[in-house]
Amino acid sequence: MSLQLDIPDEFFDPKPFYRTRDAAEAVLREIKEHIKKTGEPHTWRHHTHAKPVAGARIVYLGTFDLPESHQAPDRHAPCPCCSPRAPKFSRNGKIAWFPDEHVIRMIGPECFQTLNPEGHWEAVAQFDREEAARRTISYLLQNIHLASEIRETVLAAGPTLTAIDQVHTALRNRIDEFVRVDLWRHVGRGELNVHVEGRRLRRARGGAEEVETFLDIQRLSLFPECKMFSPKTSHLAGRMTTCAKRLSFLEFGDEVQERVRHMEQMERAKAARMLASGLNTARNIFADAEAIRSGFKPLSISTLKGWTKHKGCPVRLYIDGDYGNFYIGADESHRMRIELPEAFWNTLGRLPEISTALD
Ligand SMILES: [Zn+2]
């Protein structure tokens, strides 16, 4: 590119004000804000524009993109390594600290490779590791307090989950002992079917037409609440206890900051996974609980009643109920009552959202 930028001589003077990494990191935010505001990394007050020596040691402290106003090629930033007086790069620029010279340079994404390939790739790997650690720390600091919130919410739901387990188990036992029909086979696909008699015309051997009746299967209604009849044990309360216990390992009280910062990155990653899976488990438990108990609501019961009373219903079954009771039997005179305890209908608490925003 022939375009030449007017770079004052003093930009090339070394500004050796950063003897330690901490000192260099302390101005990171200032540098990023400068770039965001001006679009000119090389005009930051302590940027050193002189070319680094070959083989110099380097530490990458951060990366940056130029703002939209500087994305046109003639507005790109110059690079001290390879292009000190012409626009060169606009994305993924690097804020680099040079520990031997005590200076900071804003350079192009991979420019330093030509001066010290090994040093460049080592610094990139180091930066990526540190960046991952920073992200995990920030994620944990933003979210780890949710562990106790989730735990309290699932613990508070304990009596309700226990009641749903009990009712679900009682219903399965009544069906096995008294109704003795494989109900799940009929309802498990979420629809209620009936047999209906169909009629069709058939040509008899002699050539004459005659009416023939046949048995057809028709869907009477959808039944998404079918989980109430699932033969699988629900284990809601047990799953809840395990979930709460696992979350309790993530409760650091007032020491969150210190604990998180002093963890190994492996431990941090594990804590982040435990938090996410704890929330996920809690959501699944609540969803399963709602799915089972929705079957006992009046609307679902009236759907079931309509099915059992239909003359084409494939099973002999009586069902009835209200908010406190559920009745089931082979017929009305043999119906069994299952009590729905008050806790059965208690509202399950709201589970929090995990924030993934990074600063
Ligand atoms: Zn360069």
Task: Describe this structure as you would to a colleague.
By secondary structure, the chain is of the alpha+beta class. It folds into two domains: 9-115, no CATH class; 142-345, no CATH class. Helix content is 40%, strand content 16%. It has helices at 21-25, 28-38, 117-143, 146-156, 158-179, 183-187, 236-248, 256-262, 265-294, 298-309, and strands at 59-64, 93-98, 103-107, 191-203, 209-222, 318-321, 325-329, 336-339. The strands form three sheets. Strands 1-2-3 form a three-stranded antiparallel sheet. A three-stranded antiparallel sheet has the order 6-7-8. Helix 4 runs antiparallel to helix 7, helix 5 packs antiparallel against helix 7 and helix 7 runs antiparallel to helix 9. The longest helix has 30 residues, at 265-294. The protein is elongated and about 105 Å long. The two termini are 36 Å apart. The model has no long low-confidence stretch (mean pLDDT 94). Bound molecules: zinc ion. Residues 79, 81-83, 88, 107-108, 111 line the site of zinc ion.
Give a concise summary:
This protein has helices at residues 21-25, 28-38, 117-143, 146-156, 158-179, 183-187, 236-248, 256-262, 265-294, 298-309, and strands spanning 59-64, 93-98, 103-107, 191-203, 209-222, 318-321, 325-329, 336-339. It has 359 residues and is an alpha+beta fold.
List key phrases describing it.
3-stranded antiparallel beta sheet, alpha+beta, 8 strands, 10 helices, single chain, binds zinc ion, 2 domains, 359 residues
